[in-house]
Amino acid sequence: MVLVILAKNWWSLAIRGLAAITLGLITILQPEISLSMLLQVFFVYALLDGLAGLAGALNAAAAHQRWTSLVVDGATGVVAAIVTVAWSGNSLFSLIYVIATWALITGVSEIVAAVRLRNYVS
Q: Of 35, 34, 38, which Cα lies nearest the Cα of 24?
């Protein structure tokens, strides 16, 4: 059942993966990128990642699967995007703290989801 849901929601993972690759490529290929542009790029990435995570949570909830960690993950991305815009006038250190907080919360929620999923797959 869980594998079927994952297969149906492949697009969510694909969008999140493409957004992450795009963020990484922009950062690597444009090392002289301004703080303003970096804020904009991270805003778009975090927003797309968060919305895709929330869409996955809605699909999981509709299928009566575990969705809590997906909501946390998705909401964290959306909140990070909003905070990035709200703090856009601040320094690079503000952006670093937003990204670090987002990465830590997202990482923990994805590990929790992976551990729970492992119980269904193995």
A: 38
Helix, strand, coil fractions of the chain, as percent rounded to 5: 85, 0, 15
| Full residue range of the structural domain in which residue 40 is found | 2-121
How many helices (H) and strands (E) are present in the chain, helices listed first?
5, 0
Which pair of tokens denotes residue 109? 């929620």
- pLDDT tens digits, one per residue of 16-52: 777 778 777 877 788 777 777 778 888 888 998 899 8
Structural domains of the chain, count? 1
**Alpha-carbon separation of residue 47 from 20, 43, 76, 85 (angstroms):** 11, 6, 9, 11
Q: Residue 36 and residue 56: Cα distance in Å, rounded?
A: 30
Please state whether the predicted TM-score (pTM) of the whole model is above 0.90: no
